[in-house]
């Protein structure tokens, strides 16, 4: 009977080796993701809302359906210089974006994509990632940032025009977590 009791030790302490393995696995499981859609289900905003269904967050809900009436697209009002922006919460080096426009909202023409750490001037003063010549209505296009990608926390899509709207059904951003800018960095919000 004594042999059985010795084998049934309560599990109250972890060995240092087990503790180290657990800490490493916990750190890996909770590490910030650097792959996949960086903009998924984060926080989005836009210059205005053109229709009750056109909330900015609909452009990052994971649904690429280009039918605005099904409630998965954003839309600004017809206005001068509309913009749409997503806050990634962390700093990334963004290399590409995949943008789907609404099939009934017209083409996205002459839009600029700016990425950076500031929301001043609605994010338009941040570094230019790319200029979109045109994405036809209801189409998905991949847009590559200039050079080696652009670093930042905010992605802004804007159109400099006197009377237009932006209607986006999905915006996906791809890149890598770029934390070296986060420590001690002041944000201009």
Global outline = globular
**N/C terminus separation:** 70 Å
How many strand units?
Answer: 8
Oligomer: single chain
Poorly predicted parts: 19-33, 182-189
Notes on the structure:
It is globular and about 40 Å long. It has 2 helices and 8 strands. The protein is mainly beta and 189 residues long. It has helices at 2-7, 16-29, and strands at residues 43-46, 74-75, 83-101, 108-116, 127-135, 140-144, 150-159, 167-177. 35% of the residues are buried. The longest helix is centred in the first third of the chain and has 14 residues, at 16-29. Strands 1, 2, 3, 4, 5, 6, 7 and 8 form an 8-stranded antiparallel beta sheet that branches.
Essential attributes:
189 residues, mainly beta, 8-stranded antiparallel beta sheet, globular
Characterize this entry briefly.
The protein is mainly β and 189 residues long. 11% of the residues lie in helices and 37% in strands.
List the topology elements.
Elements: H1 2-7, H2 16-29, E1 43-46, E2 74-75, E3 83-101, E4 108-116, E5 127-135, E6 140-144, E7 150-159, E8 167-177
